[in-house]
Every structure is written in C-alpha cells, then in structure tokens.
C-alpha cells in the first residue's frame, strides 16, 4: 500500500446518502454470509440484499434466516427482530433461545455484524452503547456481544458529529463497547479498512473528500488505498 | 398421575413472596407472560428483583408492575426504549435500582445457574464500564470478564403449548429467554396458549423438558399465538 | 432419633436378594420424581417402578421419559440408555443434546440418582469410578456429574466386599467420585441414611443383621433409627 | 445459491491434515458417523487427536481408526467397555495417549468452545484425581474446578436429515454430542440419512442451525435411521 501524499480523485461527485451507504454495504456482503444487522441505520441494508446473494440474517432474539419486514396480514406478534420490528421467516430459517443465540455470536460464528457507532478509534475500538452524558439511562442490549463475537465488524456511520467533529478518532472519548473489533467503516464520504498492526486506510472516496481532507479532519495518518479498491472489493455496487 | 396444570393465574403466583427474585421471559412483548404479570400485580408481592431483557414497554405487563411500585430492582440489558417511560420515570425518581448486564452475559448467567456452573469467563464487556470491579483474565491473548450465575426463586414464562408433565414448545422469536429462565428458577411457572394430551408433543420437538417446569396455566388464545 | 445401644429385632428373616433391593428402592421413589438409574445394579430398579408412580427416568445420553428395555421389533439403534442397552420411549418423553443433559444433572434438577459404589464414607463421600488398581484403564463417564448433581444420591450396593470388608467406611481408600453427596444407602442387610452434621443411621434391618453387628462390621457409630422407619418411608414395599 | 452438500464421503474429509484435532459424534454406536470415519481411514491422516465420549466399540468406526494407528491421543470420558479391546490393547501397549474427562465436563468444554466462553468453574470432579493440577475455587461454600474450552479443527457428526443450508435434525438418543461438536469445530462435516429441500425442516424443529455446519454428505439409509 502507498503511504505517500499523492491526492486521489474523488470516486463520485456527491457524498453518499444513507440509502447509498446501505446499498454499498449490501453489495460488499459475500453470498451466503451469516450477518447480523444492528439496530438503526444498519437495518436498512436488508433492503438491498439480493435473493441471489442468499445472505442469511441473524437476529439476536433467536433466529437465523430472517426475512424482510412484515406488513399487514404478515405481521405476527411472536416474530420480531432485535429492534422489535415485525419481520418474516425465510425457507431455511431456524429458531433458538437466547443462550444459544448469544453463544452463536460470542463463539465467532457470524461472518459479519454491521453496527452503528458514536465513535471508532484508529485501532478499531468501538463506542456505540452509551453517550456518557450524566443522567442518561444506560442500555447496552447485545452491542457488546456483537462487538466481540462476529468475525468482521463493519461500522456504518456519518463521519462527523452534528457539530463537525470526526467520529473516527485517535482514541475514544465515549465509553467503549468493544476493543480492537472494527474492521471496516462505511461513511458518507469514504470507506476505511482497519488492519491490526498496519493501520487505517481509505479504500473509497465520495463527494469532495480527498485523502488529504480526511487526514486533516481526523488528524490520523490515513493510508491511501483507493487504487487497490477494485481488487479488494470485487463486488462493489 | 403427574400433573403440573393449575387452574388459574392467581393460584399459579399465589406463593411468590415479597423480596423474591423473579425472572420474567420475553423480549419486548414477544414471549412476555402478561397474564402472569397481571396476576403478580393482583397478588401484591413487593420489593421484587425482576430479571428481564427490558424494563417494560408501554403500559402493559412488566411496565405496570413497575408502575405499581412492586419492583425494587431491575436486572436487564436494555431498559431504555421508545415506550419505556414508566421505567424511565421510576429510575429518574430514584425509585428503582438498575443492574445493567450485556444481553449475552445476562443469557449466559441465567444458563449457568440452570446448568450448575459456578461462574465463567466471557469476552463480552471486557475493558468496558460494565466490567469495572469485576475479575478479569487474559486467556490465549484475549481479555475475559468473570461473570456469576444468576438464580431466581421464580420464573414466569410464556410458551405456546404444554402437556401435563410440563413439556413446552414455543412459537418463533417468543422463545427467547423462556427455555433458560425455566432452568434457573426454583419454581418455574409457564402460561401457555394450549394444553395438549401427554404424548402429543413430539419428543424430538420439545424445547423445555418438563423437569424444568413446576406449574402450567392456560391463558386465552391470542390471535397470533 | 435414638442413639442408645438397645438392640433392634431384624425386620425380615433373610438378607435381601438383589431383586428385593431393587424392589425396595423402587418403592421408596416418590411418584412423579425425576430419577437417573446408574449403570449396573441400579438399572434393574426400573423393572419395579409402577405405572401409577409415573417416575420420569433420565438417561444422561439425552433423554427424559425413558421406557423399559426394548425387545425384538422395538429395538431402535438410535435409542439406547447410558449403559448402551436398547430402551423405549414413553409418552411425554423428550430428547436433548449432551450439554443440555449434563446441565440438567449438574444444575440439580434430578430428584434422585441411584448409583452403585465401591465404597461410601460416613460423611457421604462416594467412590464408584476407579478401583485404583495399577494398570487398570480408567473410565469415568457420567459418574462424577451424577454425584454432584442430583438432589439426592442413593447408593445401592452389597455391604461387604467379597473378602468381607465393609464398603461403608470411615474414609475412602478408593479414588473419590464426589464428596459429601450420598444421602441413603441400600444394602442387602440394612438401609442407611446419611444426614450432614448428624451422622449415619440405620433405618431398616434384614436377615440376621443387628445395629450392633453393623457397628462392629463398619466400626462406625451408627445411630439406630429402625423404629422411625414407618414414619420416614411411608411407601415402603 | 448456498449449498453445503458435497458428493462423497471422500471429498468431505479430503482436507483433514495429519495432527488435527477431530471431534467425532456418537455415544456408543448411536450417532457415530461410521461412514465418515471409514473415509478418514481411507484418507490416511495420522497423529490425530480424537474427541469422543468413548474410545471405540468392537471392530467398527472409531475402533478401526485406532486399530489403524491413526490416533495419537483420545480425549474421552469412558474408554473402557465390554467391546473396547482395540483401544485397550493400544493403550496398554503405550501406543495411544488418554485424556480422561468426566462426561459432563467434556460436554461443557465442547459447548464452551462453541459459545466463546474462555473457561468455567464446574463442581464435577472437585476433590477427585481428575481435578489434580487444576485450578479450583470455593464459590458459595461449594468446591469447583476450572475447565477450559475444547476446540477442534474438524467435527464429524451424524444427523438424520439436512437441507442445503446445513440445518440438521437428529433422531432420538443419536443426537448426543452432535449439536455441541458442530459448534466447537472450525469445519463441521455432517453425514445424514436424508437431504431434504430447503424449507422442509420446520424452523421450530431445527436442532443445529446451518451456521454451524460446513459440509453435508448423504449416506445410504439405514434400517433404523
């Protein structure tokens, strides 16, 4: 990989919408993968998975082979996802209890979990469960289990906070969810890979972002890997 | 003849004492034994420690138990939800204690209690606020936290069908915590939509063997269960 | 309980046969109890359980509701007990995997396990897995799990070895299976209860055995509880 | 299209290297994947560490694997049986190592590996020869021994039916170690009597979800399976 200061040209003309982001993540998920889509933004990825991909979705409340959201007469109060949204069951599905479901996660059997984040550090630490704001009621759910369990953790988030601070940081200021767990970050302006002992590289740029602008925003020594992208993610959408 | 069937919800919960630890099944509303919880409210036991994944939704079941002031402490993973205002108010008012446990550790602690395990090392939560004050250990270069079994005097769960031996099957994601809570409580009470003759449930399909169930009570069938 | 030295009269005129012993244990098992019958002598207890008792038998290889031994066309190679004998399935049975089966045992859910023994000590230590003979191939199976797991451990054994040594001892000379676990011992000449902090008492005598002869044989301060028997075991056969 | 079905036993076991740790399902002959073991013998990998409850019966399956000299070490709970003469001879001749584990600890160690648990305290074996040299701890006045997860490179198991996603159901007590071994191995290979179309197995009745199964191979139907 090049670590030089050469500028990369943006890959597209505008930052990604949330829909674009979900579409890109969906396209990067290998066929047949076992995947957990976190509550919130990542849930929308399901809308862009193709039947051909036959990605098998896990929901931590005890199901593999989860189908799309249920509507109208499909709604069954006994069948929901971890976000408590009514869903459907695909052929090939299975149900299991909570201990088995979290054993599946903790035991490293899921290929990918896609999670939202408040912050990600350059060494892959994840913060997504607690803002740390005094007086807020803490709730953790399955976030810490997913962080330690899946073979790969993809984060899907806006790169900056509403006030313009980078959410990709040298070290977390928010309470940690899991240490050294994030392997890839999808944002509206760039996609990053985090490789232990190598560092952080940018593999795709969107809108007006450049490697230099990202380095400035994050104050991190981001490696330019935008030219290896086509080899690294052959299924890009 | 062995029969764990009791005639009414009120009879099923009649001996739950104040101060008891009570596990309540369900993930959100799926699998939540609402009729048993209503019975517990009528029964009136106080100072309860409740183990559930959440801390009540809307103004039904567990939320009403909290609203009535019967709960001293919640052990759960995810109390904060869009419709958890009853818990939120009680918590902010200092009327209820909260022990927050990552969901998988909660499940594994319950399972450990039922399976006679004295404690275990889990990677979940290592290096986080929720591991503070807990024993930790590096095993094969990975950090783990020590977690203890979580026992209860009673478990209230909801299943789909039962027979008189207390064998249970569940329905879809309403299964969730039911099977493990049934193993972790001294007395497990299951409300079910249907009681079927012994031998009707295929031995291959039983999810909770009757050995873990002490009382079964039938509730009116719901539209979806 | 009386601890005096008064002699009890033998309850029957002959020591029990193995069949008698099995019959007595069977009669002492409460209706509806969940029970594991160990390999060997205890297995024969199943022959004397009545349908009315509806005792629910557990076999550690993954079944509750085990029926009698299978014969002829009933034999199914996928259905055996822990002694690898073909058995049948009762209405109300259930199957589960090994981890669930041993969780059931270890978690204290079985009411009674009836086990054979090489030795039992006065404080309830059990030796039944290993003779300790040099060169023998050790095998433990589920013996240690049963010893620590069931609410009550009944031992069923001859009181003496072939050479006439008492198998009920002050402390074990054989390798231990489990500590302080045995609650009752059925032998051909007497039945004993072991109560923590109270000691060992004899509740029934058979053949020519007397409390005095048992005290002499075992060199243990056995309490005479033969006169409480009718209140203690109302279902005696 | 996801398909874990492979055409032959030989193809299924072709990449098992010498020196591997291989879990083999079965309790006695029930659930023993005899055809896969025969394939492993033909394949010829040596110096294997085998995890099984027993150490072979008669002159079939695991007993033949031991007889052929392919096994360096057995991890099991009950090697000595009326028809275990092949193991007995190899053991007495010093040709095979034995790690003896109480059956429930064996099951729990396998389960722990599959569930990402770093180790656990079990009461089983406390104070016995089999706990010597192991960490122990008194928890709530009871003695416990620390046991570690037992991982494997491969698991060979036998199930009743499978679909192309690798979902499995078992038959009666042939279920035994199959479901937990499937979770504990990097690569799980299941021989099944029948492969059925996806969606045929009821989602409520699946015992081993396909996520734990890498290869499925159909074997000729047996009289009783």
UniProtKB/TrEMBL annotation, chains A, C:
- Recite the UniProt keywords alphabetically: Transferase
The cross-references to SMART domains, in alphabetical order and at most eight, read:
CoA_trans
Q: Which domain of life is it from?
A: Bacteria
One Gene Ontology term of the molecular function aspect: CoA-transferase activity
**Residue runs in coiled coils:** none
Similarity comment text for this entry:
Belongs to the 3-oxoacid CoA-transferase subunit B family.
- Protein name, per record: 3-oxoacid CoA-transferase subunit B
Q: Which organism is it from?
A: Cryobacterium ruanii
Automatic annotation (TrEMBL), chains B, D:
Keywords (A to Z) from UniProt: Transferase
Q: What is the lineage of its organism?
A: Bacteria, Bacillati, Actinomycetota, Actinomycetes, Micrococcales
By what name is this protein known?
3-oxoacid CoA-transferase subunit A
Which NCBIfam families did the record assign?
Answer: pcaI_scoA_fam
GO MF, any single term: CoA-transferase activity
Pfam families named among the record's database cross-references: CoA_trans
Q: Which domain of life is it from?
A: Bacteria
